[in-house]
Amino acid sequence: xxxxxxxxxxxxxxxxxxxxxxxxxxxxxxxxxxxxxxxxxxxxxxxxxxxxxxxxxxxxxxxxxxxxxxxxxxxxxxxxxxxxxxxxxxxxxxxxxxxxxxxxxxxxxxxxxxxxxxxxxxxxxxxxxxxxxxxxxxxxxxxxxxxxxxxxxxxxxxxxxxx
Amino acid sequence: xxxxxxxxxxxxxxxxxxxxxxxxxxxxxxxxxxxxxxxxxxxxxxxxxxxxxxxxxxxxxxxxxxxxxxxxxxxxxxxxxxxxxxxxxxxxxxxxxxxxxxxxxxxxxxxxxxxxxxxxxxxxxxxxxxxxxxxxxxxxxxxxxxxxxxxxxxxxxxxxxxxxxxxxxxxxxxxxxxxxxxxxxxxxxxxxxxxxxxxxxxxxxxxxxxxxxxxxxxxxxxxxxxxxxxxxxxxxxxxxxxxxxxxxxxxxxxxxxxxxxxxxxxxxxxxxxxxxxxxxxxxxxxxxxxxxxxxxxxxxxxxxxxxxxxxxxxxxxxxxxxxxxxxxxxxxxxxxxxxxxxxxxxxxxxxxxxxxxxxxxxxxxxxxxxxxxxxxxxxxxxxxxxxxxxxxxxxxxxxxxxxxxxxxxxxxxxxxxxxxxxxxxxxxxxxxxxxxxxxxxxxxxxxxxxxxxxxxxxxxxxxxxxxxxxxxxxxxxxxxxxxxxxxxxxxxxxxxxxxxxxxxxxxxxxxxxxxxxxxxxxxxxxxxxxxxxxxxxxxxxxxxxxxxxxxxxxxxxxxxxxxxxxxxxxxxxxxxxxxxxxxxxxxxxxxxxxxxxxxxxxxxxxxxxxxxxxxxxxxxxxxxxxxxxxxxxxxxxxxxxxxxxxxxxxxxxxxxxxxxxxxxxxxxxxxxxxxxxxxxxxxxxxxxxxxxxxxxxxxxxxxxxxxxxxxxxxxxxxxxxxxxxxxxxxxxxxxxxxxxxxxxxxx
Amino acid sequence: xxxxxxxxxxxxxxxxxxxxxxxxxxxxxxxxxxxxxxxxxxxxxxxxxxxxxxxxxxxxxxxxxxxxxxxxxxxxxxxxxxxxxxxxxxxxxxxxxxx
Lengths: 163, 747, 99
Fold this sequence. Notes:
The complex is a heterotrimer. By secondary structure, chain B is mainly α. Chain B has helices at 2-5, 9-24, 33-67, 71-79, 87-92, 121-144, 151-170, 174-192, 199-234, 241-250, 255-272, 281-284, 290-299, 304-311, 313-319, 329-345, 351-371, 375-402, 422-436, 442-456, 460-485, 494-497, 505-518, 526-537, 545-560, 573-578, 594-616, 624-627, 629-639, 644-696, 700-720, 725-746, and strands spanning 99-108, 111-119. Helices cover 71% and strands 3% of the residues of chain B. The termini of chain B are far apart. In chain C, helix 1 packs antiparallel against helix 2 (27-52) and helix 2 (27-52) packs antiparallel against helix 3. The radius of gyration of chain C is 16 Å and the shape is elongated. The A-B interface holds A 89, 91, 94-95, 98-99, 101-102, 105, 108-109, 112, 136-140 and B 106-110, 726-727, 730, 733-734, 736-737, 740-741, 744.
């Protein structure tokens, strides 16, 4: 158990630091790269919990596709690649207060609710179990998500094309 | 058995045709119409095969029944159904199992939902009617729609409609039925709005779509409830129509559940089958091309509601306690519709609208027939009505196509056409007589059976309603025939000279088509379009064979279809073939009653005679509406369609929309703004406002106070309304944090 | 491992994302912050899934992933549209909702 907790600690620290990097860096491209670290860390956590399929989907979809999309967005909107005076608005301090309050209240609630509940890990979940659930129990949500993707695809094309 | 077991091919063929026409239709020599005609023809052949095999199956079952007296008991035992409920089947004769095939469509959370076919007499009858009329309409349209802007699109939509309607018909579960039901609604929308360039047409399409959708809320609820009806009876839910019917007849389902299921399904029927009070869309739906009106808004789609009623009849039977007699919701809806539809048909100038209101009235007969327990009669009326109403609609289309320059206004543009259009005239007349219920045409047999059932099952009130309806039907149809085919020809070239004259939507359409020709629309071969034009600018003439042949076929059916169940001559083939023998209720059959038949024919003849006297001989109070205020008010009431449209658009919508908007505005102004205001200006302002208005002026001042506060709040809030999204998000998150904290502390 | 260590990690990531959404001026950065929030949600889902021993958590994490991808696609299209119309990717310039 110790080894797992150490791995968790290392990953969590990297994730939190990178997340703070995402929201504070003055360089937009760096923000995207920090985001990669956070998401990769997330995938690591999934592996730690024995949930391999989601972990690799996270790597493929998020790190593979979404980040590339972001880089395209940065390029197309000519975001400042060089450090600029500030990328933040004047809500910095109120925002910080609210965010810290939010984390505080969430943390207090969680500690209050779950205290020392342990996760009893059995064998890692096999992909076949996940796919069975997707295509059997959750087939309707799955279809709906498919339609949603199609709608998003068409919507993005309609929005972004030049008339 | 091959045709019965493979009846899923019947909807599949037009569905494939839809895809083919859509993809390659425009490149085909006849722009896709040949694919449509061929596919529906194939469907028709398959449906006929299925019908013959079903008849054979019924005959076999009866033969087997005659041989072994205990066969029935064995079948019952094998099926494991409750014997007590099968008394009616024993009286009726052999048990003929429907042919079912079933496959899993999808599963969700352990519940399996399937697609399948359930072919029994009712489905076979419906398949035959739909494919036959669809085939005739397809053929008719090749001439009627020639040179149309969206000819290919039209045929694609017709194919899709046929496929969806047949999907609905063969469905073995209510969920699949719902899918077909919504698809035919979609096709109806597309075809009513076929000439969507003119605002009235697209408005009519939208109205039809939205009004039927109102009823579909009921259907959707009802379909979901059928699942629980089965669950209540067997412990395991199912949408299967057979299971639903068995559950309803098993006596293990509470009456309340059945009543609400039946009421919800009835709402669906009201929407789709143009029953009062949701019938208002059907006359407007005449904005579509005439063949579409014949196929969709007379013969097939609008009877989908009646079909549903017949399909899950045990639910209605038990839910509305139909065998008790008296009055029930279903019979009442049908009865009201019979009368109000017929009354409105008297004041229409548009021949298609006369027919539309007539359709409403006849659908009322069918629903009333189901409501009074005359199942076979109602379904039989569905069957015969499809032929003579399609006949009448196509006849009206023929008149407008060749006789009145694409107008449907029978007062302005028709008249005296019986000599120039003899075939159309004769077929139209046959349709009229069949509709009026003159012995021995098709309408007589079916309408008479409904009236007989109403009288014998203890629904005397509806017998009277039916007879009044029969009188009115005969009278308004005679009026219609008079205006269209007798008197002086009132059409002529003035129709084109007078720009204000646009009574028929197709006149406008025609002008547009001409305008497009001038722009050398490359989709239309110019020569064809001109030939087409020339054909219509001349004097009225008989329509070409592609139009008259379907008319003749339909009028033959209008004459002879009734003999399938001519109870007077002990012919009960229709009942034998169509009436379900499995999971059905003990509907009663009554011996033919010559007295009632003579009375009903006499009443119909009286209606014809009254109209004849009024229009031909000029007897009676002519132009009463111009002289008498009461009559004028009455006519206006009818012309305004009982003010139902006003009720829906102005009162109901206004009633819902305005208060909602006002309430939202009020909430915005008084609650949200005040909250922001008070936050912004602090407790001191709050104290002052309270002091000024509550303390000083007492309760009276509160009203003023709200107004003043709102004014001040507006000014104060304006500074907060920066339009910056992130500030709004900030407020949102802050509020969430505060509320979460409050709840945590409180909890 | 404690369930709470994952949930608290999720809470911290979520809070960071909220901070980013509130304070970043560049539209692409706001979208990235939203992704942070979604990632936090996923960690919660998967943690609860592992805790309860059911695959439902994973399945819904997959759905969230899909929706996140769709959201980024549409979001970036909107960002491009804003950039094209206002010649700016600064959210402070988007104030049409001003009262």
